[in-house]
Write a structure and sequence with these properties.
Shape of chain B: globular
Helix content of chain A: 25-40%
CATH architecture of chain A: 3-Layer(aba) Sandwich
Distance between the termini of chain A: 27 Å
CATH class of chain A: Alpha Beta
Strand order of the largest sheet of chain A: 1-2-3-7-6
Number of helices of chain A: 10
Oligomer: heterodimer
Number of domains of chain B: 2
Largest sheet of chain A: 5 strands, parallel
Order of helices and strands of chain A: HHHEHHEHEEEHHEHEH
Order of helices and strands of chain B: EHEHHEHEHHEHEHEEEEHEEHEHEHH
Largest interface: A-B, 39 and 32 residues
Structural class of chain B: alpha/beta
Radius of gyration of chain A: 17 Å
Number of helices of chain B: 13
Strand content of chain A: 5-15%
CATH topology of chain A: Rossmann fold
Distance between the termini of chain B: 19 Å
C-alpha cells in the first residue's frame, strides 16, 4: 500500500508544476488539472501496475486514458514525475516544437500517451477498445479512464457506457471528475447531469463514489474498485472534487477552467504550494 | 490514333465474369485477412449482413464486436484496439463511416496514427432507393484531407477482395470505399493489388482516362467504343486516391496531353480534384470531370440515378471528345 502522506507531498509538487507550466505558457487549463491532482498522483504512483519504460501496446501492465484532455498539464507533470520523459521538458508546454501539445497527442511521440484527446467524449470508447484487446490477449491488467463531468453531455459517452455493460467489459475502471463545473458555469445551470449515480447504474455499471481530495479514501476506493473488476460489470467512480483545489483564489470557480494566472497570481499560488520534490 | 505497335495489356483480358457486389468482395477479403492475421478484428454498427461480415463473425466470434447503432463509439473502440497492436476493421455505410464520425476519426485515429481500417459500403448514388440521406458523395474528399489517411476505392469484386487483404499488411489508417449493387466482375482474380500503385488497363495515345470505383467498368466500355471512332484512350484504374500515383498519371498525360477523370463522387473533393492538383503542379492540361456536379442524390434505381446524374458510358465518351477537342484547340 502506498504511503498517503508521501502521495500528498507529490500531489503538492504536481500542483506547483501545473501552475508554473500554465503561467509560463500564459495559457492552459489550471482548474480541472488542480482538481484531479490527488487522484492522478494516487493512480500512477500508488495503484497502477506499470512496466518500466513506455510501450504503446500496454501489454502486461495497467494502462490509463485521459478523456478530458484539457487537463494535460496535470498528466504531463505526473508522466514526467514517473520518469516517462525528462522533467525539464515540462518547461516547453504549449510552445512551438514541443511534444507537450496543448492537448495530449501521440503525434510528436511523447512517451506515456497512447491516443490524442481534447475533443471531448471520445476517451471512454478508446479505453473500452484497449480493455477488449486485453481480454483477447489474455492480459489480466486493467484499463483506467478519467473523464470530466461536463464531458458526460457528449452522446458518445453513453454509447460507450451501453456497450461496456452489454459486452461485460469488466476490466475497465472509469473515474468521473465530478466538480460540477464547466466553461459556461455550473453543470446544473448549463445542462444538468441529473441523478448521475442512478444514470450509470441504469446503464449497467457498478457505481462507487469518493472524495477526490482525501488521499486515504482515494486509495481505499481504488482498491475496492479493483476488487470489483472481473465480475461482469464495468466500474465507475464518481469523484467529488473542487476545481482549482489547492490555490485559494481558484477554488470552486469555473472561471479558472481555461485561464492562466498573471505574475502576481502565480506568485500567490506558488506561495500556497510547498516545493516538495524540487521544481522542474 | 490506334497503332499496331501498342503493347498487349490487361485490357485485352478484361471481360465480364458475371456480376457481384464490391461489398461481397469485402466480406470475402475480410474472412481471408482474418485467417491470415490473428490480430485482425472486426466491428460492425448493426449492418453485419449489409457489409457481408457474417462469415468473419461466424468464423471468429471472439474477434468480432457488435457495436450497435453507435458509430462514434465504434471508431473510438477501434482506436483503442489498435493501441494494443490489433488491426481493427470497422464496417458500416460510407455515410456513417465518414461524415457522422469525422471528428472521432480525426482525433482518435488519424491524428493518433492508429492502424484502423475504416470499411465503408453503400457509397455513392448506386445505393439507390434509400436516397440522398444515405448516398454520400463527399466521403473521398473528407477522408483524403486527413493527414496520413490512405483512401482506396476499388472497382469490382476481385479488386475489393484483394484490397481488403492488402490493407491488413499496411501500417496506418485506411479508408476503404465500396458499394451496394451487383456490378460487372472483370479484374482477373490473380491481379495483385498494390496500395498507391495505379493499375494501367489500356495503353493509348489520345487521352488519359482515369477512373475509380464502379465507373472503371463504364470507362472500359467507353474506351472500347471510342476506339471504334478512332480515339485511343490511355485508361488507368486509380484504385488508390491517396496516396495518388502521380508518376503514372504524369507519365500518361505527357503522351496524351489531356485527361478525363471518372468517379461516383461529388466533382468537388474527389479523384478529379486530386488529379487537377497534381497536373497544376506538374503538367497543366485540359481536364474534364465525369462526376456528380455538386448536388445531393435522390431515390431511384442505381442505373436511373447514374443516367440522371451523368455517370454513364456515353457521358464518359462525351467528356473524352471534349477533352481531346480542348487539347487540339490549345
Amino acid at each position: 500500500m502506498a504511503d498517503p502522506t508521501s502521495l500528498v507531498r507529490t500531489a503538492t509538487q504536481v500542483r506547483r508544476d501545473i501552475i508554473r507550466m500554465v503561467a509560463q505558457a500564459k495559457s492552459g487549463h489550471p482548474g480541472g488539472s488542480l482538481g484531479c491532482a490527488d487522484f492522478l498522483t494516487a493512480l500512477y504512483l500508488g495503484v497502477m501496475e506499470r512496466k518500466p519504460g513506455f510501450h504503446m501496446d500496454g501489454r502486461d501492465e495497467d494502462v490509463f486514458f485521459l478523456s478530458n484532455g484539457h487537463i494535460s498539464p496535470l498528466w504531463y507533470s505526473i508522466l514526467a514525475r514517473c520518469g516517462y520523459f525528462p522533467l525539464s521538458e515540462l518547461g516547453t508546454f504549449r510552445q512551438i516544437n514541443s511534444r507537450l501539445q496543448g492537448h495530449p497527442a501521440t503525434h510528436e511521440g511523447l512517451p506515456g500517451i497512447r491516443v490524442a484527446s481534447g475533443s471531448l467524449g471520445q476517451g471512454l470508447s478508446v479505453a473500452i477498445g484497449a480493455a477488449l484487446a486485453k481480454k483477447l490477449n489474455g492480459d489480466p491488467h486493467l484499463v483506467y479512464c478519467l473523464t470530466g463531468d461536463g464531458e458526460l453531455q457528449e452522446g458518445q459517452i453513453w454509447e460507450a457506457a451501453m456497450f461496456a455493460a452489454h459486452h461485460r467489459v469488466d476490466n475497465l475502471l472509469v473515474t468521473v471528475d465530478w466538480n460540477g463545473q464547466q466553461i459556461d458555469g455550473a453543470n446544473e445551470d448549463v445542462i444538468s447531469l441529473g441523478d448521475l449515480p442512478a444514470k450509470w447504474r441504469a446503464f449497467g455499471w457498478e457505481v462507487l463514489s469518493m472524495d477526490g481530495h482525501d488521499m486515504p479514501q482515494i486509495l481505499d476506493t481504488l482498491g475496492d474498485a479493483r476488487r470489483r473488476c472481473g465480475q461482469g460489470k464495468p466500474v465507475v467512480i464518481l469523484m467529488k472534487t473542487e476545481m482549482g483545489k489547492g490555490v485559494d483564489f481558484m477554488e470552486g470557480s469555473h472561471k479558472w477552467h481555461g485561464v492562466a494566472p498573471n505574475a502576481e497570481q502565480t506568485a500567490s499560488a506558488l506561495a500556497q504550494l510547498e516545493e516538495t520534490l524540487g521544481d522542474y | 490514333m490506334e497503332t499496331a505497335s501498342l503493347k498487349t495489356d490487361l485490357f485485352d483480358r478484361l471481360e465480364v465474369m458475371g456480376k457481384k457486389a464490391t461489398r461481397d468482395g469485402f466480406g470475402a477479403g475480410l474472412l481471408e485477412a482474418g485467417t491470415r492475421h490473428a490480430d485482425v478484428v472486426a466491428l460492425c454498427a448493426d449492418l453485419t449482413g449489409s457489409l457481408k461480415m457474417d462469415d468473419f463473425q461466424a468464423r471468429f466470434p471472439d474477434r468480432f464486436f457488435q457495436v450497435g447503432i453507435a458509430e462514434a463509439n465504434m471508431m473510438g473502440i477501434a482506436a483503442g484496439l489498435a493501441t494494443s497492436g490489433k488491426i481493427p476493421y470497422t464496417g458500416t455505410f460510407a455515410n456513417f463511416s465518414t461524415g457522422r464520425v469525422y471528428d472521432q476519426i480525426r482525433q482518435s485515429i488519424a491524428y493518433s496514427h492508429k492502424n484502423v481500417k475504416i470499411c465503408a459500403s453503400h457509397a455513392g448514388l448506386t445505393l439507390g432507393e434509400d436516397g440522398a440521406t444515405h448516398q454520400i458523395l463527399e466521403d473521398i474528399g473528407m477522408m483524403k484531407m486527413l493527414p496520413g489517411m490512405t483512401v482506396i476505392n476499388p472497382c469490382d469484386y476481385n479488386q475489393t477482395r484483394a484490397a481488403t487483404m492488402a490493407i491488413a499488411d499496411h501500417s496506418g489508417p485506411v479508408y476503404l470505399r465500396f458499394g451496394r449493387p451487383n456490378w460487372p466482375v472483370f479484374i482477373p482474380e490473380d491481379q495483385p493489388f498494390r496500395i498507391g500503385k495505379a493499375l494501367p488497363l489500356r495503353y493509348g495515345s489520345d487521352v488519359t482516362v482515369l477512373a475509380t470505383g464502379h465507373l472503371v467498368w463504364l470507362a472500359v466500355e467507353a474506351a472500347r467504343a471510342l476506339a471504334a471512332e478512332g480515339i485511343s484512350c490511355d485508361l488507368i484504374n486509380i484504385h488508390t486516391i491517396k496516396p495518388l500515383d502521380e508518376e503514372a498519371i504524369i507519365g500518361s498525360v505527357r503522351r496524351t496531353g489531356c485527361v478525363v477523370t471518372c468517379e461516383e463522387h461529388n466533382r468537388i473533393g474527389g479523384l478529379g480534384d486530386s488529379v487537377a492538383q497534381c497536373l497544376a503542379r506538374h503538367w497543366p492540361c485540359p481536364q474534364e470531370y465525369v462526376a456528380v456536379d455538386d448536388r445531393f442524390g435522390e431515390s431511384g434505381k442505381p442505373e436511373e440515378l447514374l443516367e440522371k446524374y451523368g455517370l454513364t458510358t456515353p457521358a464518359i465518351m462525351a467528356a473524352v471528345r471534349k477533352a481531346v477537342a480542348r487539347r487540339t484547340k490549345s
